[in-house]
Amino acid sequence: MTEVNEILMSVLSTIRVPRPGDRVHKDECAFSFASPESDGGLYVCMNSFLGFGSKYVERHHVKTGQRAYLHITRTRKTQEDDNNSGSGDPPKKKPTRLAIGIEGGFDVEQEQYEEEVKVVLFPDRQEVTSEDLASMPDVVRERVSLSMAGLLAADSVSHTLQVQQWDGEVRQESKHAAELKQLDNGIKIPPCGWKCEVCDLQENLWMNLTDGKVLCGRRYFDGSGGNNHALLHYQQTGYPLAVKLGTITPDGADVYSYDEDDMVLDSKLPEHLSHFGIDMMTMEKTERTMTELEIAVNQRVGEWEVIQESGTTLRPLWGPGLTGMKNLGNSCYLNSVMQVLFTIPDFQTKYVSNIDKVFNEAPSDPTQDFKTQVLSSLSPVNDDTEGASGDKVGVASHMFKALVGRGLPEFSTNRQKDAQEFLLHFINMVERNCRSGLNPSEAFRFLVEEKIVCRQSQKAKYTQRVDYIVQLPVPMDQATNMEELQEAERRREEAESSGAPPSAAPRAQIPFAVCLAALSEPETLTDFWSSAVQAKTTATKITRFASFPDHLVIQIKKFTFGLDWVPKKLDVSIDVPDTLDLSSLRAMGQQPGEELLPEVAPPPLMTPDVEVKGILGFHGNEEDDSLYSPLLSPVLDDSTVSQLCEMGFPLEACRKAVYYTGNTGIDAAMNWVMGHMEDPDFSAPLVLPGSSSAPGTTPTESLPEEHLVTIVSMGFSRDQATRALRATNNVLERAVDWIFSHLDDLESMDVSEGGRSGGGSEASREPPPGPRVRDGTGKYELFAFISHMGTSTMCGHYVCHIKKDQQWVIFNDQKVCASEKPPKDLGYLYFYRRVVE
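Structure for Ubiquitin carboxyl-terminal hydrolase, as requested:
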């Protein structure tokens, strides 16, 4: 018997055959971005089915004792043009379908590889040849062959997580279609000659399938489209379905559900059209469908070409810190953010410098460990990733993307996301996982001081809060090319009235100094409850920096809502400076002789018909009357609730929006709605914090014990965990976010493993430490920025530019090149680092 046979016989019991449901990681290393295409290939453990690059497989063998690995290497095939001799590549077909990776859709690069597979035995890395396999005893040969075949046939985890094909035209049946109410009002629609019944517009027309009203569609962000009359009609009547006239053919039509806020299918469309005299079988298409319009938007140039520098020949770069990241299906927002974080010393120190400690402490399944996967995502800092053929390849972050998006619909799908929201989400995850030791998110953390001065008493109130990003407003009314913009608007209105296509609008030029001034200017509060005068009055709020972080992130607030609440992106150019001095925005604190507002809480909001049983209510006590009766219902501004309902949002969501924004008006409530539409409990009834029982005494059946244990394991007390869960309807992810965003509110509660301390008076307790922040000079230099192309955060593309060794470099997913003309005026997120004098 050969030595190889002896080894295989000794480890035969550890070689497993994959079964349905087993997670097979055969495309990506658990500790890095290494893959079968990387230099050295990938080693898949034949027991745990975890994959390891050539740098880390030895470490796994030593730690676990596993000896048998399936070694997979892939070499890219050379591309030969067999069909086009001397004529170059054939022109790419124009996309005709809003899809990726399927016939008629947008192309994705499909590369062909030659694959080599063999079994390798550790520690000597002995290869099992086909001759070895043939000479093995039947029981050994069968087990090894079945394991190999099972591993090769199994879908890898990354393949399961990744949607290889995306079809934006797949629509769901509307919940209203089957039982749609149609009015017998005698309306019959002619086969042509339609116009809006309100404004006489003759294009972009939609017929309501309940009452037959023909009205114009929504106004688009650039001023084109309709005048929103079909939408307004739905808000007034609640009739949910409308069909786009001009798109009706025997094969179907564009049907939109205002209630479901999406394009839908109507299986009874022929019947619904026939009700208003429309014979679907005789109709012809006369207008572009919504799919065709969206394809056109995705092919538009201008901003895309400038930001991607596609008009120039860019020099490719490679080496440590210059490795691209593959797009896994709208993952460019993640790629851009992580590339910038790769360059920040705090993240490198926390993870890369502790590589041995992180790997040695990794659990048996490192794919589910946050520290391991962050380290994996940071590997491009030091790696110079090459394919087996010597080609420079981008790395794929399947495991990392799956882990950071787990349990959160907004980050666990292949839909486009807001890079700013992902950055904050990732910082939250770092905060949760760095309760002790070095916390790299401290590089961004700073304190904001808000000073509110009661104009009637001239007394002041100071509060501080933690923040990570500066959101810079864009005052469009202060554009330096205002005359050009006004002339363009006049031409657009003329074209609209004459039916001519609108010409391209100029880009607004906004000085950065104007944006900074808008950030720091005093804000007037018209409904401020003053404890000095014991009444509502007017106050002035001034916001300043109480500390300056090591790294400052500035978000340009390009995404907003029009007067009709249609989301739009501001097309602006801002002269963002390379250096920045914010010293003048340093908070000064209480001034000599300045009186503070008395620390008296405002009276609780309650409805007039509530029977007040005393401010102590049912759960208060003589020492602490802040927990007044949960039966005291808050007053909700009915007009704001009604306005939101008229826009088509669920009643309970509208009530929550008004409640959580403190009756501060439609703007704040609408922003809350737009920020929470993806919440799983968005339409659930409003449950007030404290409405079930007192803090610390919530019955076990009211709160999931596993959620309590999870939060307590992060270092918070059980009372704090209870309070967070009750405030967020027992949704764990939201509860954790809530507890981190209410650290100031929790300062009166001990942050410890054991909960509230049982003994000692309040005065004898030391208050828990506040959030740790760094401070220094307010002078900064720009080192990176992330740009967005497209009409909203939910579509388009992100790239980032990073300054490395005084050279700007563009990271466009896996393409890394020297930047010739970095478009610093078109960025969305800007990253500055402190200048040390």
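The mean pLDDT is 76.
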